[in-house]
Structures are given as structure tokens and as C-alpha cells.
TrEMBL record:
GO molecular function: growth factor activity; platelet-derived growth factor receptor binding
CUB domain mapped to chain residues: 1-61
GO biological process, one term: positive regulation of ERK1 and ERK2 cascade
Annotated ranges, domain Platelet-derived growth factor (PDGF) family profile: 148-240
Gene3D superfamilies the record matches: Cystine-knot cytokines (2.10.90.10), Spermadhesin, CUB domain (2.60.120.290)
Top-level taxonomy: Eukaryota, Metazoa, Chordata, Craniata, Vertebrata
UniProtKB keywords: Cleavage on pair of basic residues, Developmental protein, Disulfide bond, Glycoprotein, Growth factor, Mitogen, Secreted, Signal
Pfam families membership: CUB (PF00431), PDGF (PF00341)
CDD domains hit by this protein: CUB, PDGF
Protein name, per record: Platelet-derived growth factor C
Main location (coarse class): secreted
Species per Swiss-Prot/TrEMBL record: Nyctibius grandis
């Protein structure tokens, strides 16, 4: 239980206790902090045991940051506005964006971004909806979900398969097809369009009704029909699509 003499290691960024060890515990594994700080707490009572105490070995690790996409070697603030706008559009979260804009002090800037000031309190803060990182990331994700993405479309089997000599049931099926607009297109062109970048063929079992030749009635059978499904989509310059 480590109640008398123990060493406790805590991650200061979120207050998580990484572990507590004492003489009855096994040798702990290596602990790596999330940032450049780690909190070590040593607790001992008034008794002096004859056994050795605690020994800690530590090393400094160089941070491995994922390089943010940058169109040039210039700092972001020195880029032309249009170039910077295209670079900013490629990030998925606020943290990634701030890391790119201020690699040396991004944590401080992120804290300041969500800290209310006496001059102005945003409406979201006043109404209790101010949160850390989540709100803006949610807006970004909503744009992604409802822009150029695969979505459900109903297609007529006779038109899709070009089989006017046959009746299918159901008459229509749902398929994944690219849809949505490209208002936030990253390409440097006047007009973008939403096109599939990954297409798969899936088979669907349906009832086929086909007239019998020279005989009254319909031939009924279950058959597999192939339909294209768009798995991934992207906005590209109009006129640059294949075909």
C-alpha cells in the first residue's frame, strides 16, 4: 500500500499519478513525461530503516514533433495571405494549427486563446459553452462531414445498370456516392468539384423480374447486381479529373 515511505511520480500537465512505489513494490518501468516537466514526491516517516532508500535515474529526451505542412521555409507570419490560408486549411485541430503558427510557444498561446479577458467575454463563454479546444474542432469536423464526403444516395437499378429490359425489386438501392460542395477547396483554381478518389464495387442481392420470350409471365430469380460505392472523395480543380 506504500503508506510510510514511498516515491510518487505525477504528470503535471493533467495531474495524472503515473505510479507510487515503495520497498514492497517491484522495480518500476520507465516513465516518460508528456512535456518538459515531471513531478516527483518523496514521503518518509520518522523511522529510519536499515535498508537503502530510493534511487532515481533520469535522462532528457529530445522532443519529436510532427512537422506541420508548410508550403515554404518562411515562418507562417511571413507568408502571403493566400498561401497561409491554404496552409491553415489543412489542419484538423486547433492544437495542430497553433503548433504550426507558434512552434516555440504554442502551449502558452493555446492557453491565452481560451482565457477570457476583462475587455470582452464571448457569448459562448457567458452562456456556459466555452470549452477548451473542443468547440472549434467540432466546427471543423462538421464542415468536413457535410462538405465533399461519401454519403447515401438512392439509385435506380434500371438506370444505373442500363437494363431497361428487366425489372428489379427493390427498384432502388442506397449507395455511397460523393456529394457536397467544395467551398473550402485547397486547390489554387477558380472552381473545384467533388470527385471520388477511391471507388469499390459491391454486390447486392435483389429480385430480378424478366419477361419470358414467347411465353406469358415473368421469370423470377434472385441475382447479384454490382454497384459502385465511393469510399473517399476530394475537391479538385474542375477539368483536372480523369476521364
Amino acid at each position: 500500500l506504500c503508506r510510510y515511505d514511498f516515491v510518487e511520480v505525477e504528470e503535471p500537465s493533467d495531474g495524472t499519478v503515473l505510479g507510487r512505489w515503495c520497498g514492497s513494490s517491484s522495480v518500476p518501468s520507465r516513465q516518460i513525461s508528456k512535456g518538459n516537466q515531471i513531478r516527483i514526491r518523496f514521503v518518509s516517516d520518522e523511522y529510519f530503516p536499515s535498508e537503502p532508500g530510493f534511487c532515481i535515474h533520469y535522462t532528457l529526451l529530445m522532443p519529436h514533433h510532427t512537422e506541420a505542412p508548410s508550403p515554404s521555409l518562411l515562418p507562417p507570419s511571413a507568408l502571403p495571405l493566400d498561401v497561409l490560408n491554404n496552409a491553415v486549411a489543412g489542419f484538423s485541430t486547433v492544437e495542430e494549427l497553433i503548433r504550426y503558427l507558434e512552434p516555440d510557444r504554442w502551449q502558452l498561446d493555446l492557453e491565452d486563446l481560451y482565457r477570457p479577458t476583462w475587455q470582452l467575454l464571448g457569448k459562448a463563454y457567458i452562456h456556459g459553452r466555452k470549452s477548451r479546444v473542443v468547440d472549434l474542432n467540432l466546427l471543423k469536423e462538421e464542415v468536413r462531414l457535410y462538405s465533399c464526403t461519401p454519403r447515401n444516395f438512392s439509385v435506380s437499378l434500371r438506370e444505373e445498370l442500363k437494363r431497361t429490359d428487366t425489372i428489379f425489386w427493390p427498384l432502388c438501392l442506397l449507395v455511397k456516392r460523393c456529394g457536397g460542395n467544395c467551398a473550402c477547396c485547397h486547390q489554387s483554381c477558380n472552381e473545384c468539384q467533388c470527385v471520388p478518389t477511391k471507388v469499390t464495387k459491391k454486390y447486392h442481392e435483389v429480385l430480378q423480374l424478366k419477361p419470358r420470350i414467347g411465353v406469358r409471365g415473368l421469370h423470377k430469380s434472385l441475382t447479384d447486381v454490382p454497384l459502385e460505392h465511393h469510399e473517399e472523395c476530394d475537391c479538385v480543380c474542375k477539368g483536372n479529373t480523369e476521364g
